[in-house]
Amino acid sequence: MYKKALAGFLAFIIVFSDVVCNVSAKDYSGINPRVDSDEHTYTFYEQEATEAKVQPFENLQDIEQGEVTESDITQDETIVQDGPITDENTEIEDGNENTEIEDDNENTEIEEGDESTETEGDGETIESGKDEEAEKTEGDDESADKEEDKDAEGTEENDENRVNIEDDNSQKQEMTGTEIGIQTLAENDFNYTVLNGSYIKLTSYSGTEVEVVIPESIDGYAVQAMENVFKNNKTVEVVTLPESLEILGGSNFYNCTKLKRVVFNSDITSIGNSCFYGCSGFQGTLSIPESVTEIGASAYANCAGVIDVAFPVGLRTVGNNAFMGCTSLTEVELPDSVNSMGAGVFKNCSNLTKVNYPLSWSEAGLSGELLRGTKVRTITVPEGVEELPQYVFRDCSNLVTVNLPGSLTTISANAFENCTGIINFIFPEKLKEVGNYAFSGCANLKSVSMTESTAHSRLTP
Fold it and tell me: What pTM was estimated for this model as a whole?
């Protein structure tokens, strides 16, 4: 009986060794066990090989007694016995499920799929399971790996997209404000407003340069106009304007006390209101571009260093207070093309002694004061003038003598109102009309001379 038992035990050892060797030879590093709760058996699904960790079996009886639990088996590790069989356990860990190899000294069961491999007593039966399940598992593992690769590529792609989006956002922030009507900080420290699809108006300058050359274009837009650009700037001395400039608007150089020179490169037609107001750095002769036909209100007011002004021959309009407070100005020669001069054009030019009367002058400012606060004592109206406009010398208290031409026929209302310096006045022979309040307030007027024909004309006090 002992011989039979010994023979059976040896047969069991041989079969069990073959089985374990097969298990060891085959890479079960990717084994994924499934517990079949009804039969209390374990099914192995072959996955792609991963690195196998080899550890010796310990306490085979623990496996037999069910002391190895599902928590002892992990997804990432496979423990495979490789070597002679002893009284030790083999744990193959995967997920939260366990793999059990039972040994009752009589049989060994390894179930795979729906098939099983059995070894009993004297006999030896090995039944292999279906290969389809293993192939399916391998296919699933390949799909899973592909999914992981795809996810990795997607992550890299998302990172690239994220960088691109950030770059785009930076560009958008840089480009923010270039739409029509919106201000934005541009190259060369200029701010501008887009007028239309092709042109811009400069609105300010934030630089600190002493000499500034304004570019022909900024951000692809041609510089067409300027307004308030250098207002109150205390460093700039020389500014060169671009050829593209058409409109030199208001207050561009307002109170730029160090400004000495402006270079014009285009045929601008007007100087904006207060454009050069308070530019006390201007010295000597002020040359206004020949293309200019209009000088705005207070355009050169308080330019205390200006001694002389070279007016363009085509000038037509001089605004209110245009040269007010130019205390160094001594003489003015206006072109005959001027037909309109506003109130106080040379007001408080305290050293001005001589001003000519333009032949075409037909409109004066409401408040007069053309020569108030000057040293002009005499004014001569040229031959050919037929009418003195309303308010023409109103409130010019310094005026003493007015020489009128023989062509004059009309003295408009308020023409010499409040001219307290006039003592004697001679009417020309052709004079036919004197407007209301023409000499109102002339407190020192003592005599008026006229011909007989003039005396019979319609004279209105």
Answer: 0.60
